[in-house]
Design goal:
The structure is a single chain. This protein has no helices and 11 strands. The strands form 2 sheets. Strands 2, 4, 5, 6, 9, 10 and 11 form a 7-stranded mixed beta sheet that branches. The chain is globular. The model has no long low-confidence stretch (mean pLDDT about 95).
Length: about 120
């Protein structure tokens, strides 16, 4: 299993970013996918999850109304569109899949929200 995130960067408050995670090594379309984040000095927290087919999504309260998770099973890619970013969204963002009771993580992509 390999998960490779991209799309992070420095953005001003109120700005937007779209993160991507390209997956390989497993049958992508068969698994739910998740985005997590970890801010400095804090634990890793769930941001959003999308079902295997893309028809069902769940969001953390902090993400609702601002973030959108989606997936393209043909491209084995999951996305996180983040709008109206705030300083408290600064974190390393990870995509994740649970397969055979094991959790796999990408290397993460840094998102910094600062003026």
């Amino acid at each position: 299993v390999q998960l490779v995130e991209s799309g992070g960067g420095l953005v001003q408050p109120g700005g937007s970013l779209r993160l991507s995670c390209v997956a390989s090594g497993f049958t992508f379309s068969a698994y739910a996918m998740s985005w997590y984040r970890q801010a400095p000095g804090k634990g890793r927290e769930l941001v959003a999850r999308v079902s295997s087919g893309g028809g069902s999504t769940n969001y953390a309260d902090s993400s609702k109304g601002r973030f959108t998770i989606s997936r393209d099973n043909a491209k084995a890619t999951v996305y996180l569109q983040m709008n109206n970013l705030q300083r408290e969204d600064t974190a390393v963002y990870y995509c994740s899949v649970t397969r055979d009771s094991r959790v796999y993580w990408g290397q993460g992509t840094q998102v910094t929200v600062s003026s």
